[in-house]
Design a protein that fits this description.
The chain has about 240 residues and is of the alpha/beta class. The chain folds into 2 domains: about 1-30, no CATH class; about 35-225, no CATH class. About 35% of the residues lie in helices and about 15% in strands. It is built from 8 helices and 8 strands. It has helices spanning about 1-10, 25-30, 60-70, 75-90, 120-135, 160-165, 175-180, 200-210; strands spanning about 35-40, 50-55, 100-105, 140, 145, 170, 185-195, 215-225. The strands form 2 sheets. It has a 6-stranded mixed sheet, sandwiched between helices. It has a two-stranded antiparallel ribbon with strand order 5-6. Helix 5 links the parallel strand 3 and strand 4. Helix 4 packs across helix 5 (about 120-135) and helix 6 runs parallel beside helix 8. The N and C termini lie far apart (about 40 Å). The chain binds zinc ion. Zinc ion binds near residues 14, 16 and 27. Zinc ion binds near residues 14, 16, 25 and 27.
Length: about 240
């Protein structure tokens, strides 16, 4: 009845199977992964800490990410936050018993991108994931900022993406700097929505290491299946 009413009044359809009703039907919701796995890009950026992703970037997940990031479908952040929380759990499994706080660092958007509507998509997902995890341990969210405008990543290959973002982020936050001085007492996870070449995650890692914080891992909602030298026009901008 609810699905029929939603279709009648809103004309909404499932982003996964196009069934009329909710934007993600119960069947497509149930089909999403509940387990994250290491998702190494090819080639691997030098020195990248282990990247974890819960889903492949295609089908319903791709539609959810694009809808959330580019089409103002902010309600998707709940399901995407669940997927990201699962990646963070896997990424921090080795320190699960540790009482030190987990610090989630969202990969920042390019200036302008994702901010036009006053909504930072990746940061919103990370805050959502942090809410899921707070029942399990102490979780903080700390931002990085973009200090130099990197160009849009779409259309660049792995090497181009790495060169484009290198040196583009820095760690401005007093909280992070304070944490760096006591870094033996926190576990830092770099978080993003989609892992493509790993270039932006690697740059976030570099910016953290520059202030003395060595991230434990990278966690992402999803990773692209085909990676490496091929970049298509439909690839996300990171
Ligand atoms: Zn569906």
């Amino acid at each position: 009845m609810l699905d029929a009413a939603l279709d009648l009044f809103l004309g909404t359809r499932c982003v996964g199977c196009d069934a009329p009703g909710r934007m993600l039907c119960p069947g497509c919701r149930a089909a999403l992964s509940r387990h994250a796995a290491p998702a190494w890009p090819t080639p691997v950026p030098d020195g990248l800490v282990t990247p974890w992703a819960t889903e492949s970037y295609d089908g319903a997940v791709r539609a959810l990410v694009v809808g959330h990031k580019d089409r103002g479908q902010w309600g998707h952040r709940r399901v995407l936050g669940d997927l990201l929380a699962e990646a963070v759990r896997a990424a921090s499994a080795d320190v699960r018993a540790d009482t030190a706080p987990l610090v989630l660092v969202p990969v920042p958007s390019r200036p302008g991108a994702g901010r036009q509507r006053g909504y930072e998509a990746t940061a919103a997902l990370v805050r959502e994931a942090a809410r899921r995890l707070r029942g399990e341990r102490t979780v903080l969210v700390a931002p990085l900022v973009v200090s130099r405008g990197a160009a849009d990543q779409a259309g660049l290959d792995a090497r181009g993406r790495a060169a484009n973002v290198h040196g583009s982020m820095h760690c401005p936050s007093v909280a992070l700097a304070r944490l760096a001085r006591r870094s033996a007492h926190a576990h830092v996870v770099v978080c993003d929505d989609v892992l493509t070449t790993g270039a932006t995650a690697r740059e976030a890692q570099r910016a953290l290491e520059a202030v003395g914080l060595r991230p434990l891992a990278v966690a992402a909602v999803a990773a692209t299946r085909r990676r490496g030298s091929r970049a298509t026009s439909s690839s996300p901008d990171r």
